[in-house]
Amino acid sequence: MHGDNFKCSSERALAAPCFDILPNRELTPRSPIEIRPFREDDASALHTAARESLEELCAWMTWCRPDYSLEHARSFIAATSSAWNAGREFCFAIVNATDEAFLGSVGISQINRMHNVANLGYWVRRTCARRGTASMAVPLAAKFAFQHAALNRLELLIPVGNNASQRVALKVGAHREGILRDRLLLTGKFHDAVLYSLIPQDLQPQKQYQRELITFGV
To answer: What are phi and psi of 116, to 5 degrees?
Structure first.
């Protein structure tokens, strides 16, 4: 992504396809990933990725379950579409920019409009881990939140044992604010969580991925 170079207005961003048009694109390498809203035809790929990554997801994600099925994936996508249209949350598929292979997800949820604060969460399928995928996707979702969803603060609430997600938070410039005791209930047990935050100033040009192409659309 290059600065604030969006060609669509914030009024249109949540309703119509929108592309970040970069000047001198022939000189600007394309990002290896894109983020976009989920589509109905993502269900099979989402199910496969979740089943592949059950051990990690069930340890840290409240929505994961050992019997995660294709129907669960379909229900999730239907719910995200409804939530997006209502402005309650914005969930993106992370896909390969070349072939649209499904890599994971990043989402903005628990939006508090009184204070314009929301949670930001992410996961990457096991076979695509440790490739910088989440570190590229998180700033894209954050920029969407700040520029097109009128949010001013994103909170990343990460279990203390989830070191991989904490590394991502630090890599993208999130600020570590402290440990919240017994904040998360996972697999029937309470876990301490580390609170990280992102605000618009954290996405200054020197901290951004300068050469991203991102697609928004429904």
So the answer is: 55, 50
